[in-house]
Structure formats: C-alpha cells, structure tokens
Specification:
Layout: E1 5-7, E2 12-18, E3 21-27, E4 29-32, E5 36-40, E6 47-51, E7 66-72, H1 94-104, E8 110-115, H2 125-134, E9 138-143, H3 150-156, E10 161-165, H4 170-181, E11 186-192, H5 197-204, E12 221-226, H6 237-240, H7 244-254, E13 262-265, H8 267-270, E14 292-295, E15 300-302, E16 312-313, H9 320-327, H10 329-340
Parallel strand pairs: 7-8, 7-14, 8-9, 9-10, 10-11, 11-12, 12-13
Antiparallel strand pairs: 1-4, 2-3, 4-5, 5-6, 14-15, 15-16
Length: 353
C-alpha cells in the first residue's frame, strides 16, 4: 500500500548532510513516500529526492515529478524537423487538463507544456497557467516566439521558465528580448544536429554565436536537445543526425565548458556525455517512465513524447494516472530497458555511426 504525505506550501529551510557535504536550500513542497522523500522549491526550481528508511535513492517514483503535457493538438508552423509530424488534432480541453492536475498535484512539481505548436497560443492558456499555480505546480513551456503577444508575456510571468526554440529568425531574438525585459526566466532551446553543431561548439568554447541578437548575461540557460529522426524529421536523417566526432566534441566541451551562461540538455543528449565522477550525482540519463511522463492532447499517457504506440487512455478515475504509471506494460518495458542499460534509449533512438 502506497502511503504519501503532502505538505502544503510554506517556505522552510532545508539543511541536510549528503556525501559529507551540506545541502542548504529553501523548499515549500514536501512529499514523503515509503522509500523516499522529495523537497521542492516552487520559486527557484530546486528539487532533492533521496531514499529513506534504509533505501537507496529511488529508481522509480510513485508518480512523475515532471509531467510533459501536450496541450496543443496542431500547429501552423510546419517545421521540417518537427518530431510531432503533421497530425492535426483538437487542442487539449481545459477539463482534461484540470483532471490531470487534480490527480497528480500532491506529487508532481513541474509541468512542461508542449504538443504540436506554441502553448502560449492555446485558447485557454491563461486558465491553464493559473490552475497550475493554484495547485502548487510550476508551469513551464517552449515557444517558437512567433506572434508572441504582450498578454501572453504577462501571463508567462507566473511560469518557472520559458524556452524559445532557436530558429535563428528575427522573431526568435525579438521574443527572447521581450521575455527577458519582462523579468521572465528565459532559456534558448537549441536543436543539436549535424547542421547546427558548429555554433553549439562555438558557444561552449565561450563565444556568443548569436552576437548582438542575444544578451547572454540576461539569459538563464541554453538547453541542448538532440535531433531525433521522427515525424517530419525522418526525411532529414542523413543531413541532421550528428556525427560521432561532433558528439564526442560536445561531450568533451560540455563538462568543462567556457559558456557565458548556464547550459542544460535533454536526457537524450546526456546519453552521449561521458560524465566525470564529480558530476555523477548532478546528472541523470533517461527519466522516462521513472521520474517523468508525457500526456497527449487527447489525454493518452506515455512514458515519453517520442513513443507513439502502446498508449494508455486516461479517464475520470481519480487514481487512473497512478495505476497506469505503475502497471501499464509500456511503462514497465521502459523501466526494464533502463535498468539493464541507463544509457540507452527505450524509444529506439540509439544511433549507429
């Protein structure tokens, strides 16, 4: 029987000893399960999960601490590399979104809003953001920056962070500047591919490949996303899958980079990083089905947004996400694969060079 306790938001001081070092931070969300406890700061994004009662740090959580929710069912941009493909669905309804939050609010700390298109253009974007805040969940989202309105920027002030995908276009740089000027924690999402590797490596060497277009001092981070040949991107496999040498150079530079701002990367990119021992406690490989999951615009629960089969339909049952998360065959398969090899991709994107 799973027993969990959830502490209502009140900022407290955390001071614990981990590996002969003291971890000191503030937190306002606390979850205690049978074999682990979780501390989270809804203002800074600090999260600490550790085993208790003689248990190691958990390989799997009782529910995801991060949910990637595809609130957008279709997109007008038609980007050639989009892994979501050309499928056209209705956007997620507010009722489905609220039902999801109602099931996980006591355990999930953050949601990443996405899907096919810019989440800030969802017709109920404001209500979605406000419902997250009401339930002590930090909303984040990624946008192309196209047609970003002043109203959307004002709503986004409630988000933990906003990422702008690097299209290298005037609307990219304009939206980054406007978000920064509004005091919003702003990231660049940079697709690492054979074509884009040069600028990425230039950035890690300490230079600014965007020059006057991006003020790196005001930027929160550059987050690298590994190109995956899925959706429309299938036709770009030859030109976009990075070479072995490019990935090796990225790995060597990432752990000792001279970048002028913080860097991050998705789990797929981490799989190609040779992590030195001092950083092992601060980096993890694929979290799909272990710490995170994806929900489609129709409300289908998946371990990862890059898998498009074996989904499990959610319904109104208040325990449906928990049951699916624990018992669904696809989730169990993902976990088995990752237990055997943490550096592999359960979706099958294990590039052969």
């Amino acid at each position: 029987m799973i027993q969990q306790s959830y502490t209502l938001p009140t900022m407290k001081i955390l001071q614990i000893k981990e590996n002969n070092n003291y971890v000191i931070s503030k937190y306002d969300k606390y979850v205690k399960a049978e074999n682990y406890e979780m501390y989270f700061n809804t203002k800074s994004g600090f999260e600490l999960i550790r085993g208790i009662n003689g248990n190691d740090d958990p390989f799997i959580l009782e529910l995801p601490s991060l949910l990637d929710i595809g609130i957008m069912g279709h997109c007008k941009n038609h980007c050639e590399f989009c892994y979501q493909g050309s499928t056209h669905e209705d956007h997620m309804t507010l009722d489905i979104f609220k039902n999801i939050i109602d099931q996980v609010f006591h355990h999930t700390n953050q949601v990443a809003l996405g899907g096919r298109g810019d989440p800030n253009h969802h017709p109920q974007f404001k209500e979605i953001i406000e419902y997250c805040i009401k339930n002590s969940i930090v909303p984040n989202y990624t946008t192309s920056g196209i047609d970003l309105s002043d109203e959307q920027i004002e709503i986004s002030k409630q988000c933990g962070a906003v990422a702008v995908s690097d299209y290298g276009k005037p609307f990219t740089y304009n939206s980054i500047k406007r978000l920064q000027d509004a005091g919003i924690k702003t990231n660049i999402h940079y697709l690492f591919s054979r074509k884009s590797a040069h600028n990425a490596l230039t950035f890690l060497h300490g230079h600014n490949p965007w020059r006057e277009n991006v003020d790196l001092e005001k930027l929160n981070a550059v987050v690298f996303l590994l190109f995956k040949p899925q959706g429309r991107g299938v036709t770009l496999s030859h030109s976009h899958i990075p070479s072995e040498d490019q990935l090796k150079m990225f790995s060597n530079l990432a752990v000792k980079n001279k970048a002028q701002t913080k860097i991050g990367m998705d789990s797929c990119m981490v799989n190609h990083i040779k992590i030195p021992k001092p950083l092992e406690n601060f980096m993890t490989t694929c979290e799909a089905g272990r710490y995170s999951a994806y929900i489609t615009p129709r409300g289908n629960l998946l371990p990862c947004s890059f898998i498009d089969q074996f989904y499990h339909q959610l319904n109104k049952s208040p325990y449906q996400i928990k049951v699916s998360w624990r018992l669904n065959y696809t989730f169990q398969t993902f976990r088995k694969i990752l237990e055997e090899d943490p550096n592999t991709c359960p979706c099958g994107f294990n590039y052969k060079y």
